[in-house]
Write a structure and sequence with these properties.
This protein is an all-alpha fold and 421 residues long. It is built from 19 helices and no strands.
């Protein structure tokens, strides 16, 4: 092949890789933005149905649990039927769920629409399929690419949550869900028209992205990974992080409203925190390359802990300084652990089971988040305030950081190789 032909081929692959990254980002943006609108729908739904905080928080808890448990099946659907079917089915389920929620006659219907149907659809277009979609295109820089995709989570919250709050105040929560449903329904056609055959990489995502060499048989299987302290450490970290974050996140908007802030101000603070998470993801990737994964992970945990304490302070007295400190400190660290843990998993587990191993780690985060979302509502109803929940969240963050302090493999992660049988 001539130099000119090789350059044309490389340029073509570069454009496709960028387009694949943009597609993955777009779907992650939709998935998180649609899901997080529940935060601003929670109070008006409580008022209309006379529901308790535990019941409404339970809807989001169910969503997190089901989406986490659905993530491995989304990967299987992607592998078996391709990206076109996986993404189109996910978008269709989300549209159907939003339209169903708009006509809900009680809280049980919202558990079915938001908690189950929407969560399955969101898993089908979320971070696990995105990993598979872009991994083959970014073999040497998967951490940077994953950071960009994770930035879609914060961007979705930033733009869609305040927009949903504005629409709720104008037309009500039912109209908001109807508009979201029909908008997402239009995206079904666009999803089917995307050039999925060209976007599908030739090499499986996490396997190829590791860039590791060596005998694949020496790499741990999923079953063998369960006996590895590195795998258990990542599960514990991600599970406790998801739990602690969603004890806080699912209650931030109602907490601020009950503390005396206007609903739009509360939604904007939530959105700004999500916006800062976009910068936090990008910054954590750059800092991790410069200083290592472990110190940046510990720094992110410290920021989350401090931000949670700011909210605890707000439960005693309204303070614009504490609110600004929460938004800045908590927000900058909000999405930082995702790319760090994905990169850590990629470096430690590089064989054929790498995708399955990361899928289980990711699912652990959602299961923890689901339990945290439910517990936040339960503790609010039990105590009548948010202080116990915030103390539990702060404790959980400290425990989540522990594996990064005692697990020696996290200091300089290298591929795990098992001895010959």
């Amino acid at each position: 092949m001539t130099d000119v032909a090789r350059k044309v081929q490389d340029d073509g692959r570069g454009r496709l890789a960028t387009f694949a990254l943009a597609v993955a980002f777009g779907f992650v943006f939709i998935s998180r933005g649609v899901a997080d609108t529940w935060m601003v729908s929670l109070l008006p739904i409580e008022q209309e149905f006379g529901a308790t905080r535990q019941q409404t928080a339970g809807v989001y808890s169910t969503y997190m649990l089901v989406s986490g448990l659905s993530a491995p099946f989304a990967g299987l659907l992607l592998r078996r039927f391709g990206a076109r079917v996986c993404y189109a089915l996910g978008v269709a389920l989300i549209a159907f769920a939003m339209l169903g929620a708009a006509h809900a006659d009680g809280i049980v219907a919202l558990y079915l629409c938001i908690g189950v149907l929407a969560s399955i659809g969101i898993a089908a277009i979320g971070i696990v399929p995105a990993s598979a979609l872009i991994g083959g295109w970014f073999r040497q820089r998967v951490s940077v690419a994953m950071g960009a995709v994770y930035a879609g989570l914060g961007t979705g919250s930033l733009l869609l949550v305040p927009l949903a709050q504005w629409w709720i105040e104008w037309q009500g929560w039912r109209s908001t869900y109807a508009v979201m449903g029909w908008t997402v329904a239009v995206l079904i056609v666009l999803t089917l028209l995307l050039p999925w055959r060209r976007l599908d990489p030739a090499v499986p995502a996490l396997n190829a992205s590791s860039g590791a060499s060596g005998d694949a048989n020496a790499s741990p299987s999923l079953t063998q990974a369960f006996r590895r302290p590195e795998f258990l450490g990542l599960m514990a970290t991600f599970g406790l992080t998801g739990f602690s974050m969603y004890v806080v996140i699912v209650q931030v908007v109602p907490f601020l409203v009950e503390s005396g802030y206007a609903p739009l101000t509360a939604a904007t603070a939530f959105g700004l925190s999500g916006m800062l998470s976009v910068g936090g993801v990008i910054l954590s990737g750059w800092l991790s390359d410069r200083f290592g994964l472990r110190p940046i992970a510990l720094l992110s945990f410290a920021c989350t802990y401090a931000g949670t304490l700011c909210l605890l302070g707000l439960s005693y007295a309204v303070s614009e300084w504490l609110l600004a400190a929460y938004v800045g400190i908590f927000g900058i660290a909000q999405g930082a652990r995702g790319p760090i843990i994905a990169t850590m998993s990629n470096r430690l587990f590089t064989g054929p089971a790498a995708a399955a191993i990361y899928g289980v780690i990711y699912a652990t985060s959602n299961v923890g988040a689901g339990f945290g979302a439910w517990l936040s509502g339960y503790l609010h109803d039990l105590s009548g305030n948010y202080r116990i929940a915030l103390i539990v969240a702060a404790t959980g963050i400290l425990l989540a950081a522990m594996p990064f302090t005692w697990q020696t493999a996290f200091r300089s992660p290298t591929p795990i190789r098992l001895p010959p049988a």
